[in-house]
Amino acid sequence: MLDLAPDLTQAAGWMPIVFMGVMGLSMLIYVILDGYDLGVGVLMRRASDEDKDTMIASIGPFWDANETWLVLGVGILLTVFHKGYGMILGTLYLPVALMLIGLVLRGVAFDFRVKARAASKPLWNRIFYIGSMAAAWSQGYMLGALVTGFATGPWYGLFNAVIGLALIAAYCLMGAGWLIIKTEGELQLRAVRWARFSLWFTMAGIAAISLTTPLVSPSIFAKWFSFPNIVLLLPIPVATAVLFWIIHRSLQRLPVRLAQGNEYGAWVPFGSTVGVFFLAFYGLAYSVFPWLIIDKLTIWQSASAPASMGVILVGALVVLPIILGYTVYAYRVFWGKSTTLKY
Questions:
Q1: Does residue 1 lie within any of the structural domains?
Q2: Is residue 72 in a domain?
Q3: Fewer CB within 10 Å, N side or C side of the chain?
Q4: DSSP codes of every residue in 168-202
Q5: Residues 270, 183: contact at Cβ < 8 Å?
Q6: What is the mean pLDDT of residues 17-28?
Q7: How far apart are CA 98 and CA 113, in angstroms?
Q8: What is the mean pLDDT of the chain?
Q9: Other C-beta atoms within 10 Å of 284: how many?
């Protein structure tokens, strides 16, 4: 694959790799941080009115800042990989529009649900749930499209739709893990049950992506199944399976502990799910690199001129630490158990 690259000692060679890394890191952080609060939004449909307020309080200080990472990732795609941006957004116009509509609905419902009259509050709760579902499903659809190289056709569309449902389940698993950490009492125990239900669909989605990605491209198949790569990469699926087993075992043991007021291991489902996302991201990044669109467009073919990338790199070096800094600060300040939301 790397023979497709220009001289990596030149700016035109190494800068696209740097920006691809920053964009990938931004998307990974977004999926983890906004993923759990999207999952909480989806799970709200199963909660009581009082629990809904506690669930909103658990994500209240974080959810808006979490979306900053999406803006950073898409901004790099637009400014650095503009050729790929046109091809990708042209193909994914409808799911991107659906995602944006979902995020807008969430933002509006988040504020209106606590300021509207009591009779209107259930409506805004449903809108928050619908917005969370739409955003999560559309992101999964786009992931499926990325895996299949943005191929079109009814079977590809069906695959993308199924991956969308699988990502909803993965977000619910992470959201339930977040609630196990942030809540207490009956809601905490209910979150354990939600996590159990979501775990199996998450496993199915990871398996589907893992099996499909090498099949869509001979070059990706060769990267995974040629010797010695297959031996060196074997720890990835093995570690993923181990993490799923850890999550399953933890969810079996937690109800007894939590009922006794013992919080030991409450972080395990969420932390292990984050580990699964890291491994899945690593496997996907290894499979796709150096393609921006599989077997169609590399990152070097899509990149802007070196002079333009140099200016953007300076801006990224300023913006990235700021975003990372206030994200860490917000989580440090608002860490701890959530209580009923009050205004």
A1: no
A2: yes
A3: C
A4: HHHHHHHHHHHHHHH--HHHHHHHHHHHHHHHHHH
A5: no
A6: 92
A7: 22
A8: 88
A9: 18
List of E strands, the chain: 291-293, 297-298
What is the C-alpha to C-alpha distance for residues 16 and 306, in angstroms, rounded to an integer?
9
Listed in sequence order, the residues at least 6 apart from 18 whose beta carbon sits closer than 8 Å to its beta carbon are 313
**At residue 65, what is the residue type?**
A
Alpha helices in 234-338 (DSSP H): 235-259, 268-288, 299-302, 306-333
Q: What is the pLDDT of residue 341?
A: 56
CA 195 to chain centre: 17
Q: For residue 27, what are its two tokens? A: 């998307």
Query: How far is residue 157's CA from residue 92's CA, in Å, rounded to a whole number?
Result: 11
Residue showing tokens 């579902």: 133
Q: Which residues on adjacent β-strands are paired with residue 291?
A: 298
In a domain, 339, yes or no: no
pTM of the model: 0.91
- CA end-to-end distance (rounded Å), the chain: 56
Local structure of 61: helix, strand or coil: coil
Domains of the chain: total: 1
* Structural domain that includes position 230: 19-306+316-333
Residue 241 lies in a domain: yes
Tokens representing residue 100 in the block: 């944006």
Question: How far from 194 is each of 58, 112, 208, 269, CA to CA, in Å?
Answer: 16, 26, 22, 12
Tell me how far apart the alpha carbons of residues 73 and 271 are, in angstroms, rounded to a whole number. 23
- Distance, CA of 128 to CA of 322 (rounded, Å): 29
CA 280, chain centre distance (Å) = 11
Q: Provide the β-strand partners of residue 293.
A: 297
Which CATH number characterizes residue 294's domain? 1.20.1630
What is the DSSP pairing of strand 291-293 with strand 297-298? Answer: antiparallel
Rg (CA), the chain: 21
Condensed to tens digits (0 to 9), the pLDDT of residues 90-138 reads 889 999 999 999 999 998 998 888 787 877 888 999 999 999 999 999 9
Question: Distances in Å between the alpha carbon of 237 and those of 24, 165, 224, 243, 268?
Answer: 20, 22, 12, 10, 19
Amino acid letter for position 266 = A
